[in-house]
């Protein structure tokens, strides 16, 4: 088989860094630096895509500073809404498949059962609104596309909840963590491996081929659900260097006790049924993913 070109954006981010490894068996991964592929300048992306002429575009880049987006809506919109549309248009023009990552923040969080792809959206933040517009722009381009909505992503690199909790546990005598928001913590590596697995199943001699009936939005998170406080407790319990922690178990607080500029969904658990039916992808439970992630952390402490 030939090695198709894969254009990856956000290659230095949490998910993008993992994708560079998981996509490598599927083709030649080209992950330009930001000065060569800048999502904040959407129109500049056209020449970049045309020069690479990829068979697959994977957009793992995004403006993810949820609170900062409330005061920086223009930049968030360029990166999260306009840039994905340009990438999708160029992918469609050259016959490439585009994979785009979105978020649970496209929902208002008022559900009490896991959200399906067909459920009504209603973002309550600039971040969620711009990500939803990005989904619509990708679909409107008219070419083959897969949109993976995920949430509560963490890993051993970058800025995320897991790393924050590990740091604060060493700095503070007490941790107070929100306990009335529900979601499914998803390890960046599991998400990247699931993405590559799904793409491997549709790889053809010429690139990647998927029927129009399977285009569209898929929910892709860990199985199960928890709260931020319970997730924090599990992180500290699994920490291979627990002896360095100063605090005890996290204390639960309400969302109202920790006000933020952006409104978070109270319930953002996603139903992953379509992902399993259409692409054969089943992500492990969040507890299993955390255990696997912390095993990697433990390896760093091994003599």
Question: Care to describe what's here?
Answer:
With 303 residues, the protein is of the alpha/beta class. Helices cover 38% and strands 14% of the residues.
Summarize the structure.
This protein is α/β, with parallel strands linked by helices.
Tally of strands: 12
- Tell me the helix content: 25-40%
Distance between the termini: 42 Å
Strand order of the largest sheet: 2-1-3-4-5-10
Global Rg: 19 Å
Shape: globular
By secondary-structure content and strand pairing, the structural class works out as: alpha/beta
Give me some keywords for this one.
single chain; 303 residues; alpha/beta; two-stranded parallel sheet; 14% strand
Topology:
Elements: E1 5-9, H1 14-22, E2 28-30, H2 45-52, E3 56-59, H3 66-69, H4 73-93, E4 97-103, H5 126-140, E5 145-150, E6 153-154, H6 161-171, E7 176-178, E8 182-183, E9 186-187, H7 188-200, E10 216-219, E11 226-227, H8 228-238, E12 251-253, H9 273-279, H10 286-301
Parallel strand pairs: 1-2, 1-3, 3-4, 4-5, 5-10, 6-9, 7-12
Antiparallel strand pairs: 8-11
